[in-house]
């Protein structure tokens, strides 16, 4: 009975947890400036993750490895979420941001071909192109198109993808539990400094702000992080990796139901085309590669989901 419950409930719970991070982010930046949201969330998540890593006895990186982990963390956490949260404040929809972030494995594959010497297949290039068309369709359907917001989304995606490739190149053996804590800890003071430079600490709705912060830390950071690692211990990475294909659609539906963001036909078409691109780009020709690629993608997910 317990095994059956895990098989049916865990995947659905994880997709909802992952997708809800976009909703909580939009609620948060609707109540406070983006980098104030980022600073508070990073600070609370850093404490929780550091305590967890200490509790489980995870080995912490030192010396040069620590420096590389800090660089990867600033790219994957600060740049990614700083850009995404600022885009949210510029009224870019949760569906578009989720879809753009979902293209991360595609962009990683393209960067890895250059940096790590991995082969980029024709199918992956096709997936990248189709995914881009999906984003364009979803963006074209927005009632208030923002070029700055779209560029911020692209910047966030590049920060995430470059950080993941950097991590794979320089810190492939660091314990994911301690490296996640390092990533967030390194981002806290920089996010705080940017918030101070913006000199905007006004919280228009303290209740919504506090609720969004509690949800991000307890559900998106700790809950999703622990559940993902439990699934990776139980199932192969290919099975777990497929869950991420569902998050753009689930995010769009949740945004429509919970915060009233419109879900029009062109947005739905963009999501469908974008997910098709993600699926194509994630597939490899050889059997060996088909398992290697999701493994690297899910190692990224295990280390970055705590910042959601």
Overall description:
The chain is an all-alpha fold and 308 residues long. Helices cover 81% and strands 0% of the residues. It is built from 13 helices and no strands. Helix 1 (2-31) packs across helix 3 (63-89) and helix 3 (63-89) packs across helix 8 (176-198). The chain is globular, with a radius of gyration of 18 Å. The two termini are 31 Å apart.
* Rg computed from alpha carbons, rounded to a whole number of angstroms: 18 Å
Gap between N and C termini, in Å?
A: 31 Å
State the helix count: 13
Derived from helix and strand composition plus strand pairing, the structural class reads mainly alpha
Q: What's the average pLDDT? A: 84
Q: What is the strand content? A: under 5%
Low-confidence stretches: 285-298
Find the count of extended strands (DSSP E, 2+ residues). Answer: 0
Biggest sheet features: none
Element order: H for helix, E for strand: HHHHHHHHHHHHH
Q: Report the principal-axis shape.
A: globular
- The percent of residues in helical segments reads over 70%
> What oligomeric assembly is this protein in?
single chain
């Amino acid at each position: 009975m317990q095994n059956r419950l895990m098989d049916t409930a865990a995947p659905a719970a994880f997709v909802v947890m992952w997708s809800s991070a976009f909703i909580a982010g939009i609620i948060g930046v609707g109540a406070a400036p983006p980098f104030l949201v980022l600073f508070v969330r990073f600070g609370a998540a850093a404490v929780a993750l550091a305590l967890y890593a200490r509790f489980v006895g995870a080995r912490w990186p030192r010396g040069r490895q620590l420096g590389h982990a800090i660089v990867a963390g600033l790219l994957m956490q600060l740049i990614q979420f700083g850009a995404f949260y600022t885009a949210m404040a510029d009224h870019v929809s949760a569906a578009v941001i989720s879809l753009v972030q979902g293209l991360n494995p595609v962009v990683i594959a393209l960067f890895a071909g250059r940096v790590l010497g991995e082969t980029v297949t024709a199918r992956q290039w096709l997936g990248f192109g189709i995914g881009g068309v999906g984003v364009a369709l979803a963006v074209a359907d927005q009632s208030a198109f923002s070029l700055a917001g779209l560029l911020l989304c692209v910047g966030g995606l590049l920060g995430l993808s470059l950080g993941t490739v950097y991590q794979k190149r320089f810190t492939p053996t660091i314990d994911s539990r301690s490296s996640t804590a390092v990533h967030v800890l390194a981002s806290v003071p920089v996010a705080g400094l940017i918030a101070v430079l913006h000199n905007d600490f006004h919280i228009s709705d303290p209740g919504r702000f506090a609720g969004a912060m509690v949800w991000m830390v307890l559900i998106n950071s700790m809950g999703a992080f622990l559940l993902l690692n439990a699934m990776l211990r139980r199932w192969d990475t290919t099975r777990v990796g497929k869950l991420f294909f569902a998050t753009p659609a689930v995010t769009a539906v949740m945004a429509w139901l919970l915060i009233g963001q419109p879900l029009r036909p062109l947005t739905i078409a963009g999501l469908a085309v974008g997910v098709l691109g993600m699926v194509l780009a994630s597939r490899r020709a050889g059997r060996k590669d088909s398992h290697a690629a999701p493994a690297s993608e899910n190692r990224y997910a295990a280390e970055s989901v705590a910042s959601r």
